[in-house]
Amino acid sequence: MGTLVMIGQVVLGLSILIILHELGHFLAARAFGIKVEKFYLFFDAWGVKLFKFNYKGCEYGIGWLPLGGYVKIAGMIDESMDTEQLQGEPQPWEFRSKPAWQRLIVMLGGIIVNVIVGIFVFWMLTFSYGESDIDNSKLKYGVVPGIVGKEIGIQSGDKIVAVNGKPAIKFYGDVMSSDVLMGDAVLTIDRAGTQQELKVPADILNDIAEHKSVEFVQPREKMNRIELVAKDSEAERMNLLVGDSIISVNGKPIVFFDQFSSEVKNSIGKAIRITVMRNGSLVQTNGAIDSSAVVGVSNGVAKFPMITQKYGFVESLPIGAYKAFSVITDNIKGFGKIFKGDVRADKALSGPVGIAKMFGTEVNWAKFWSLVGMLSMALAFMNLLPIPALDGGHVVFLLVEMIQGKPLSDNFLEKAQMVGFFILIALMIFTLGNDIIKW
User: Fold this and answer.
1) Among positive and negative, which fits the CA dihedral 406, 409, 415, 417?
2) Which terminus of the chain has a lower count of CB atoms within 10 Å, N or C?
């Protein structure tokens, strides 16, 4: 059931974005009197259609190949590669007969709508939910580094007080921001009352992609009472009970959960002795830890200090717009890292499987719309790339036409479209294969 929920969310989210993107082209074309012959969600490759109807001279439908969507604009060389209509004289209602500036707006229509949708979604989310996060300034136990955090020198109990010299970090999310996870950042930490700086390496995104962001740092939590004992686990065999408070492991005092986890990992393949406080008395239990390094107990829910900031309707707009455009700036930074060789493409890029995993197996509408907003801005950025067959490729050709005063030849545009098509197919195969390998 969880898998169906995940697929359903992906299909719904991408369908909304595809329809709105193509609607941008459609409305711009209609505004300039250009005939639109088809409007399709997904591709009707080889003429196979799941659904269609005609309205005012345009065919609307759903194709069978879920790799995007399209509008077929009369007199334009597009992904349909239908060049027969270009053999005759240009007609007033055709794309090719319109001024270059009008054609430019038509090609930018989808991108513009994606940007508007992204800003609107983040605006409404900010207005509805505000900003809620752990209060970093009140994390009195600091943070716990994971595999990635340890590699750059972070230690348990460190307090991250500044990023790139910006002091007084209020939201814990700023510690996990793209400025940090993209690398080249400088963290100022407070370690037992002494401040020092740690450099985040430029290629840290490779490790983040491999181990996930939770392996950077997490807020440090105390060892609370046992909340759950897993059935058929070592904890059950050791007779650990819900409500027990773990005092020591192998004679070493336990105050924080990370200390407990560390001692368990150190006991792999060995005997383990856990002392708990039960109803006011100390109880000692003995067991053994296998290669999974799992005892089978759940720590009580950590109560981290939270901070919530609410915003008015108008006040939320610039905050939402900043969040939306930060998606584009993060993409630009990410591609820059790839081209410079700091980050491997197979670590940084994700395809449909990666997107599906982001949505998850449970319905959370705040998370759903946040991902839709993020993907809308990401689609705007990707479509603006100067690759033939993408909107950005058409925009480049139109700008060249406007500069030189005459259009590029149909033969050149046809060949460029084919090159762009094969680039996109190769990119889709790479990202899908990469997703499968990661999975």
Assistant:
1) positive
2) N
49: tokens are 């259609």
What pLDDT, on a 0 to 100 scale, did the predictor assign at position 85?
A: 61
Which DSSP string do the residues of 140-206 spell out, in sequence order?
Answer: TT-EEE-HHHHHTT--TT-EEEEETTEE---BGGGTTSHHHHTS--EEEEEETTEEEEEEPPTTHHH
Q: How far apart are CA 74 and CA 84, in angstroms?
A: 11
Indicate the DSSP class of residue 118.
Answer: H
Residues in the chain: 439
How many other CB atoms sit within 10 Å of the CB of residue 341? 9
Residue 50 confidence class, pLDDT cut points 50, 70, 90:
very high
C-alpha angle with apex 218: 250 to 259, nearest 5 degrees?
Answer: 10
> b or e along 178-193 (b: 16 or more beta carbons within 10 Å of the residue's beta carbon)?
bbbbbbbbebbbeeee
Per the listing, tokens 């060892």 go with: 223
pTM: 0.82
**CA separation for the pair 423, 356 (Å, rounded):** 23
Q: Nearest 5°: phi and psi at 167?
A: -85, 180
Measured between alpha carbons, how far is 144 from 133 in angstroms, rounded to an integer?
17
Contact 420, 390 (CB under 8 A): yes
Q: Is the separation of the CB atoms in 347 and 204 below 8 Å?
A: no
Tokens of 168: 């007084």
- Distance CA(406)–CA(402), nearest Å, equals 7
Residue 350 pLDDT exceeds 80: no
What pLDDT is stored for residue 112 in this prediction? 96
- What span, in angstroms and rounded, lies between the C-alpha atoms of 315 and 303? 30
70, amino acid identity: Y
Structure tokens at 339: 């081209």
Q: What is the mean pLDDT of the chain?
A: 87
Q: Is 419 exposed, middle or buried (0-12, 13-18, 19+ CB in 10 A)?
A: middle
CA nearest neighbour of 431 among 382, 374, 370: 382
Return phi, psi of residue 345, to 5°. Answer: -60, -40
